[in-house]
Amino acid sequence: MPFRCGVHGSQQNRKGAKLEMLTSPEPKGLVPFTKESLELMKERIAKKHSEDDEAEDLQPSIDLEVGRELPFAYGNLSPGMVSAPLEDVDPYYKNKNTFIVLNKKRTVFRFNATSAWCTLSPFDCFRRTIIKVLVHPFFRLLILISVLTDCIFMTMTNFADWRAVLENALLGIYTFEILVKLIARGIWAGPFSFIGDPWNWLDFSVTLFEFIIRYSLPGFASILNTARTLRILKTIPLNQGLKSLVGILNRCVKKLIGVITLTLLFLSIFSLIGMGLFMGNLKHKCLRWPQENENKTLHNRTGNPHYIQEVENFYYLEGERYALLCGNRTDASQCPEGYVCVKAGGNPDYGYTNFDNFGWAFFALFRLMTQDYPEVLYHQILYASGKVYMIFFVVVSFWFAFYMASLFLSILAMAYEEEKQTNTEKAKKIEPKYQQTLKEFQEGKEAAETKTIQIEMKKRSPASMSTSVDLLDDGTFAHKEEVKESRKKCPLCWYRFAKTFLIWNCSPCWLKWKEFVHMIIMDPFTDLALAICIILNILFLALEHYPRSEGTNSLLSIGNLVFIGIFTAEMILKIIAMHPHGYFQVGWNIFDSLIVFHGLAELYIVTVQGMALFQLFRMLRIFKLGKYWPTFTNLMWTLGNSLLALKNLILLLFTFSFFSAVLGLKIFGVNYENCVCNIDKGCQLPRWHMHDFFHSYLNVFRILCGEWIETLWDCLEVASRVTCIPFYMMVILIGNLLIFYLFLALVSSFSSYKSATIEENNEAKNLRLAMARIKKRINSMLLKTLCKKQNAPKETMENVNDMHVKETLSDNTLFELSDTQDFFKEKEKSSGMEKHTMTENESQSLIPSPSVSETVPIASGESDIENLDNKEIQSKSGDGSSKEKLKQSSSSECSTVDIATSEEEMIYEREKPKHLKNGHGWRSSPGQISRESKKGKIWQNVRKTCCKIVENSWFKCFIGLVTLLSTATLAFEDIYINQRKTIKILLEYADMIFTYIFILEILLKWMAYGFKAYFTNAWYRLDFMVVIVFCLSLIGKFREDLKPLISIKFLRALRVLSQFERMKVVVRALIKTTLPTANVFLVCLMIWLVFSIMGVHLFAGKFYECIDPTSGERFPVSEVMNKSQCESLVFNESMPWENAKLNFDNVGNGFLSLLQVATFNGWITIMNSAVDSIAVNMQPNFENNIYMYCYFINFIIFGLFLPLSILTGAIVANFKKHKIKQGGSNIFITVKQKKECRGLKKFMSEDSQRPIPPPRNKLQGLIFVLVTNQIFNITIMVLIFVHAITIMMKSDDESPQMKTVFYWINTVFVVLYTVECLLKLISFRCYYFTIGWNIFDFVVVVFSITGLFLPAEYYLGSPSLVQLILLSRIIHILRLGKGPKVFHNLLLPLMLSLPALLNLCLLIFLVMFVYAILGMYNFAYVKKEAGINDVSNFETFGSSMLCIFQVTIFAGWDGMLSAIFNSEWSDCDPDKINPGTQVKGDCSNPYFGIIYFVSYILISWLIIVNMYIVVVMEFFNIVSKKKAKTLSEDDFRKFFQVWKRFDPDKTQYIDSSKLSDFAAALDPPLLMAKPNKGQLVAMDLPMAVGDRIHCLDILLAFTKRVLGKDERMEKVISEIETGFILANPFKITYEPITTTLKRKQEAVSATIIQRAYKSYRLRRNYKNTSDIHMIDDGGSVKATKEDIHFDKAKEKSIIQSQV
Q: Residue 287 region, left (φ>0) first, then alpha (ψ -120 to 50), else beta?
């Protein structure tokens, strides 16, 4: 027996060795790098240089890049190969003079083998030792720990005694690292040397700088601290993923150069416009000026020149820091009585907000573009210059900012997709040998695992030793998968432990109990009950509020205990039913158990002091709902995978923000401490500073959120502009680049999200099954109830059906086109069906039988489905016969007898209903009924006449005009309407007329279409609702008790939606893209609910504070500590204990507060209240709870950024889906606009204008040559830019001499532009005015000359506008063919998406109009404070539109809402008399205000998001078409444009000698760059007499070259031939006599013949010479023949290779 065991052991060892050989393949391709290897490499390099014609198409392998692990396809490493030089296995580097080194982790390190520039030989022992140190994992770990230690050390402001020791230690480590890299890699030996890596430059520079400062210039320690922050960036090269990502972003920046240039150009143009319009205006203030009745002392003071500069003489609004701005225009702000508007003092915001010179104007425009605090600048300009300049802000803040953001997003999105596609393609290019080796490795591994399992099973059961091996394998196979899965997670011992203790199969009684529990807990209705419990628990959590009564507290406490008990019971029962081992294998069960353990622990910990925050983990119960919600599970799964894939990008963003915070701390920390009195009167640090790391990081985070201007003002006050502006620009630009890239990556992930991403879990299936059972039960009960009614006599039912048919005859319509095919199929089957009663669906069907010959269809222009593509109609209309019937029944003609035109059809249609069965209800023809009586005939004629009226285009135009007029009249009903009696009377009569017209329209449509057809159409239902609104508003005018009905008049504007096709298309498209995202929106709302409930737990009742009524500021804690002390303070009365307007006292207020944080409006005030909070009924203290900032940071990341990415991705996915359904066309434009887009594309193309014929006069000809020369155009552009630079030099405080200089400079430019205009007029003659750009130049010159000679008071606008008019010529740089092509490529997508953008803008304007009118009706008399002032208010339509525009760009709506809150909750006077009106009071309804602003924000956000998607998708569309191997109409048009230049006489032929130049002049993809003669010859083009080639032959050949072997090639070529013949019916027919290939062969043959003839003549000439000469001649002849044969063979080979 021992002998047998020994034999068995030896066999087992041999088998184990064999398995080890399978699982550990020998190294393949890994060869030590020796001197012989170096010599062979040098020989290959020399050979490569000698062979110049060799083409190198190799690319570096992605699997063998530096920093990656060596693939297992190369086998395991032997100990001698670790950290030893090896030959480079990447084929790309075979001839690059490199070698690789691998460490224990198989990480690839690549070195240069060249020994140059103090670089040691790769065979030097010292260098090899240093290389081993460099590649060792502990070396990198040491550097990483040092960098992280240094990072932590740099965040500290209070240094300990060991500061110098730590700094010296770190400096020594960094120096050691540099020395190791210098020796191991060499100084300058190639791309893998020390200097070849830019990150090494950074390390060396910082270390050298630190040595110099520390030991030579100790006085510059602050500069050293700033420079040392660059060490934070060392974390990037230490992580290969971060290093690669930086390279990707660097490539993105290169692609953004064109966008950045265009942005700077537009910013400069708008800055110059701002200088011309607003220069010096922000210095206008209201100065106190004595009136006639005031004392003489004040009059004498005004004579003092310093009086104007005294700030106390200016007028200040209550609570404002800066004086009130004013203007001299009538629409600008006016000064109160006793004050005059003068230009005095400085500019607002520390003097940094102005347009007095180009620099500050550019700064202000950059602020507007980034949408940071725009409402303040918006109000300042409108106060000082007038409301008319709102147009400037609409263009800059909306269109310009939108377009620039779209450009950046588009370029970044394309760069991300290209990078993603590149990585995918690289991953697919794995060599077959790698795949085969990996397959062998996996097979060997599986064999080893199988053998190990067999051995373990043998050990467990010795009796099975006698069993055959086959039976043993069968017994182990069932257990194999389980062991493999368990081994992946834990060792075998844990698996045995789980098998023994966590699987409970102890007794039969227990098994029966387990089965019973399993049946109960796994029942679908149990899951339904648990889901209801979770929803109830969420409701209980949402009931938390302040203040709460004792009863509410006890209810919530009992509810919490009940739910803990339910969840605990669920966990226990599931553990019993599934065993602990099975229970904890499910992720959701682990999550449930954690919630249960938390709930049980909370019962004991909640009473401990300071553990109240433990209750916050109750919010996790909300996520239990995700177990029953597949959408939530799928989204979280997608989000997790996306974040995991983007971990390097997230880490890079965090690294950059950390670096920026430390850099800000080192640069500005001391300045905030020393110069704090410049920004605070009490010399206390403000909330936002950079004196310590935490505040510095908060400041950087705020900048990344888009709010930077206020903190920049403070920075400019405490530090210099040289440091503040570059620092802020760095954080803004680089930070936004990273954030945009991360956002687009997440959107790309979620746009490919599918509802069935992962398998649905059992709980979700059970819940669906339970709901299906309930629904089935309800349906069965309803059917039983209805069956009692259906047991009536059969004859009665048939009579009812007949009556129903007669009633619905007039309601027949072809409305739901999508059901037509189904109806036809059912009609065919109806002959074989038994008679049955009409079902509910059939009784509601609006589709008439095709047999009905006389119908009154809905007009095609009014239908919901008139814009469906032909493909969709054909796919839904059945076969050809059904299509014909469909066309007849959907005729746009109104006549009810036009369909049956012939007598045979009339007879057929009469007899056809007789054969119809009752399957669909018996349908009789209206023609039969109309012939039974004269009344029917009259009724039919009346309906036919009504239909003709409503279908008439003039009637539609009239209704559309009336709709617009009725909508426009709403704008006149402002607070001054009672003072304008005439207008009020006219509006009252107009309302009555409009009402009667719309009622008449409804009656006509009822008569024409019938009630059912009318009310089935959604647009008609909208019209009907608007008419009801008209009627109710008229009733409200005549009855006092119904006067509130007047306020619903704003709904009249909605009728515009149903009257204009563009509006309909946009609304349909928005519904298609947004409604499917409702489930995703609910997931995002659930995330917000979690944060809102957390906010209630953290801040409920803590935002109250004691306010000093005299100063309006909060009492300090030293005076008032709590509510009781506040109420005990008595001056005139008790002090108010007031709550903040936005708080977290309940979930509703929490949602509103979070919305303000999400829109970054009023979020600073909310955060300040949270950070200052102490406890309930305690007076807040300055930054007492400073780490509450983390709550808002987490919300912005997880509650705003991620949900916004999810929602946007879902909308993009729906947009793509519906775009594909429409054949790739834009879903926001009409069919007519699609044709306009094609015309617009032609207009945007080059050479779209006809060339101007040259004049015959010699002088005119010379001038023509001059002005059409490219140098002349470049000269004019240079003049324009020089002129722009001179305007940039202007400023508000320039001297009179400078003004004179600028005047003469402007005159010189006017003269130069005039000369240019005259030269073009002389040379172009009348053709000058056929070009739009010339007309524009002519108008500019005329206005400029007029501005020079007319006095300023007679000219329209300020004198600076003359220069702006001249400067407008700078837009020539955007002209096609004149400016850079990159600008054309950037403007083309905008122009092509312009129709869709205009449609969306029309919709958003309508929404703005509706909300502006609604605001006028509800907030016109609100007290002016906070965000409602003299400029932004709801008193008039213009001011109301100003307010709505602010909300559209998410600016300042918090101030407006605060004013509405103040009107209700503080100093509201309900009895205030408003002059000129009968309305009393200045109160409002805060709840209506919340609904008003929140609804508008959501609607406008949806529209704006779709606007961004339209532009970005247009970019993708253009790029994809360029990359695709296809040809468009634009490519053919450009082909013929180039053809015109080579064939000006339109002969349709060009000479073969010009073919090469012609091919090189084409645009891609038809372009064939030089040298191209060989390719052209190989095309074998047919040639006519005179070596001419026809246009069609060239086009077809080039098309075949582009399309290749594409399946569409034959179809495209046939279409080209057909189109060419149709376009050229008089084409000259010709017979080709040869081809280009034959002609080349003829030329080669002629050359051979000529050479042979020459050799023959040579022999004849030397025939009579001496023998020696004969021998020589024979030798030369022989050589000549050999040359001829060689040349002939070479030319043939070239031709054949090209063919």
A: beta
Distance CA 1408, CA 1503 (A): 12
The structure's pTM equals 0.81
> In whole angstroms, what is the distance from residue 1559 CA to residue 1545 CA?
19
Which residues have a Cβ under 8 Å from the Cβ of 429 and sit 6 or more positions away? 62
98 in Cβ contact with 112 (< 8 Å): yes
The 3-state secondary structure of 1513-1528, one letter per residue:
HHHHHHHHHHHCCCCC
Give the whole-angstrom CA distance, residue 1200 versus residue 700: 18
The residue assigned the tokens 């069968």 is: 474
Compute the Cα dihedral for 1528, 1530, 1533, 1538 and give only its sign.
Answer: negative
- Gap between the Cα atoms of 1510 and 1508, Å rounded: 5
Nearest to 1282 by CA among 1382, 1369, 1349, 1376: 1369
The C-alpha atoms of residue 1284 and residue 218 are separated, in whole angstroms, by 47
Are 1079 and 631 spatial neighbours (Cβ–Cβ below 8 Å)? yes
| CA 321 – CA 538 distance, rounded (Å) | 46
Strands 284-288 and 339-343: antiparallel
Q: Does residue 1568 register a pLDDT over 70? A: yes
The continuous run of DSSP H or E covering 1164 comes out as helix 1163-1172
Instruction: Give the closest residue to 177 by CA, choosing from 101, 114, 238, 246.
Output: 238
Q: How do strand 1588-1590 and strand 1549-1551 relate by DSSP bridges?
A: antiparallel
Token digits of residue 1658:
């040579």
Q: Which of 314, 385, 379 is nearest to 1427 (CA)?
A: 379
Cα–Cα distance between 971 and 984 in angstroms, integer?
12
Spatial CB neighbours of 94, under 8 Å, sequence gap ≥ 6: 41, 44, 88
Q: Output the six-digit token pair for 1226.
A: 């834009």
Distance linking the first and last C-alpha atoms of the chain? 80
Beta-bridged to residue 1137, according to DSSP, are 1106
Q: 75 in the Ramachandran plot: left (φ > 0), alpha (ψ -120 to 50) or beta?
A: left
Cα–Cα separations (whole angstroms), residue 1006 to 926, 963, 1155: 17, 19, 46
Model confidence over 1082-1125: pLDDT tens digits?
999 999 999 999 999 999 999 999 888 777 788 888 888 888 88
Res 444: pLDDT: 62
In the predicted structure, residue 902 carries a pLDDT above the cut 50: no
Percent of the chain with pLDDT over 70: 75
Preceding peptide of 547 cis, ω within 30°: yes
**Token reading at 328:** 């001299």
Q: How many helices (H) and strands (E) are present in the chain, helices listed first? A: 66, 11
Percentages helix, strand, coil for the chain, rounded to the nearest 5?
70, 5, 25
Burial (Cβ within 10 Å: 0-12, 13-18, ≥19) of residue 938 = exposed
Give the whole-angstrom CA distance, residue 562 versus residue 603. 12
> Is pLDDT larger for residue 1099 or for residue 1623?
1099
Length of the chain: 1699
Separation of alpha carbons 778 and 1252, rounded Å: 80
Query: By C-alpha distance, which of 374, 372, 373 is closest to 392?
Result: 374
What distances in angstroms separate CA 1468 from CA 310, 319, 885, 1138, 1373, one per listed residue?
36, 18, 68, 15, 57
Angle at 132 between CA 130 and CA 136, to 5 degrees: 120
Rg for the chain, CA atoms, rounded = 42
Contacts (Cβ under 8 Å, ≥6 apart) of 843 = 804, 921
Here the tokens at position 414 are 């394309």
- CA 436, 439, 443, 449 torsion: positive or negative? positive
The Cα diameter of the chain in Å comes to 143
CA distance linking residue 740 with residue 735, whole number of Å:
9
For residue 1101, the surrounding DSSP H or E stretch is none
